[in-house]
Structure formats: C-alpha cells, structure tokens
Amino acid sequence: MNIGIISRSNLEDRVFWSGIENALYTQLKSSKYINVIKIDKLNNSLRKIFALKREYMKYINNVKYDDIYNNIISKNFSKQIEKKIKNVNLDFLLVFDSSLVAYLDTSVPIILWTDILYSEYYNHYFKHKNISNDTKRDIKNLERKTITKCSKVFLSSEWALKKAKKKYKNFYKKFYHLNLGPSFRKNIPIKHVKNSIKKRPIN
Fold this sequence. Notes:
This protein is α/β, with parallel strands linked by helices and 203 residues long.
C-alpha cells in the first residue's frame, strides 16, 4: 500500500506540531505493509505577506486575523502538492492540516487525521476575541471544502468527534475517533509524568 503523507513542514522534524506528525510518519514507515511517500517541505513564503496583515490588524484594529487558514495560501499549497504527486502511484493521501488540501485536484482518496476541526478550535479558544470577517469566511469555506473532499476524517477525541458530527450532519459517516498517540518513543513511568506536571509553572 502506497500512502502519501502531506506536511507543510519537514516530516523528519521532531518538534513541529509537538512532534506528532513525525511520530505518526515514523510509525507508518516502520510497517512492512506500507510504503510511505513524503509530500512535505512545502514553500511557505507566501504566508509572510499575510503574517504582516495579521500583525497590523492585531495592533492597529485589535482584530484577530488568521494567516494560516486563508483561501489564497490554501490554493498555493494545493498546487504545490499536485505537482509533487503528479507522477506518483498512491493509494491514499494522509494529511494532518485541513488547510492544505481544500483545493487539491486529485482522484486519490484523502484522509484527514487531526485533533479538532479548525472552526471548533476557534470557537473554543478565541470565542472572546474580535475575529476578522475574512478569517471567519475562509475558515468556513476551507473546512467545508476539505471535509467534502476527504473520504474519512479521524479526530483524536470523542469531544471533537461529537462536535464535528453535529456541525456537519450530512457528512457524519465520514467522522471517526482515532487517538493520535504520544509524540515520544520511550515508555515513561506514570510517576515521572505526574511529577513533571506538578513542577510545571502555573502560568
């Protein structure tokens, strides 16, 4: 089975997204039944323009603008991915960031595996913020396009799963619960974990 794993970063990077992408990539790569093809290191230069807009809106207008979930950037990422997979034989595409594949033109089945839908992430963490209308529009558009395009969507918690099924009732059969698992390779004793949590700063 040939699986293409998509990442805008380097899949060998053990720090990006808390090392989760690297851990999943490493685990899949270790299977003798799976041939993993990296579709990573996407050019992220275009985002710098929108990062400037983000900072301007933050400090001048006191508005939260998202420079990641953006229609123009998403189209750019999708075009880059199309070029990378053009002549590659793939059974599935696996992606962890839904903004990368919203405009992807491919017949290869896409699987999204993430912790929470981006709209719920915003509703949960930024509900008291003044969110840009452009960001609200782009999140709504990109998320729906991605879910429509994906054959399956795996979410890492029952809470996120319930939220997704409630929001996208027409696509509820696409949603499944699947833990992401730890981003480290060693077995750490529970006593050590509890002690580390106790020592963690309150802030």
